[in-house]
Amino acid sequence: MYNITWLIIFGFCLILYAISFLDDLKSINSKIRLIFQFFCVASSVLMINENILNELQLEKLEFLYIYQLSLYDILFFFFAVILWVWITNLFNFMDGMDGISVVQVSFFSLCTNFLAILGLIEINFLYFSLILLSISIAYYSVNKPPAKIFLGDVGSIPFGFLIGFIIVYHMIKSELIIPFLIIIMYYLLDSSLTLFGRMLKKENIFKAHSNHFYQKLIRKGYSHKYVLAKIIILNSILLFISMLSLILPIFSLLSSITITMIFLYFFDSKEKP
Questions:
Q1: Distance CA 151, CA 137 (A)
Q2: For tag attachment on the chain, is the N or C end more exposed, with fewer CB atoms within 10 Å?
Q3: How far is CA 6 from CA 11, 47, 154, 176, in A?
């Protein structure tokens, strides 16, 4: 991957960081935040996908020629953008408990690290995942239960954007996506099922709430530390399955969904202590 790609990705990350910082200080309309997110993500996908944008040529400004694109290219572009934006917001939606997002980023970084060591992805992602892992471990010391510092939008949105970048980049470049989806399966299922439930109830999906499965367990009287320990156990299992997916992709994906659903059922049905 070209150095300019990294620079542009980090530039977009800084833009989202600034918007999130302002949102933490003074609430910004969700539509404005989404506009910035879609702009940063769509521009990034255009840059990464050589079928849509052959290469970034700043001198010639040779960008999108829509009439040359196949229907597959167009649909794939929109799918990649929506997936990336969803993952970006996923980390914001799920960041409602001490240490949860830091733990998720740490396990995702370990998965990326292992894939790079095995030579399945570019070596640059080995260094990048080590940086993410180091930041996560350092931040965990002040974000673990009981948290002294909270992640907020300013932390969760950039984390989500960078993780979305890793997933979408490899989906485009190597079609290696299953291990990455498996390692964030808990976040995917908890947030998606919760969002679907809120949409059925016609609730404002951008309004803060406490309806996630792990939050239900906390409301029943279980500590953040107890719930986080269960999520760490689940992520440890998912990390193993993500590596197994290199040999048995479909079996591993279905297994990760099944095991995560069992954990969600446990969170939802467990009685008060």
A1: 13
A2: C
A3: 8, 11, 20, 19
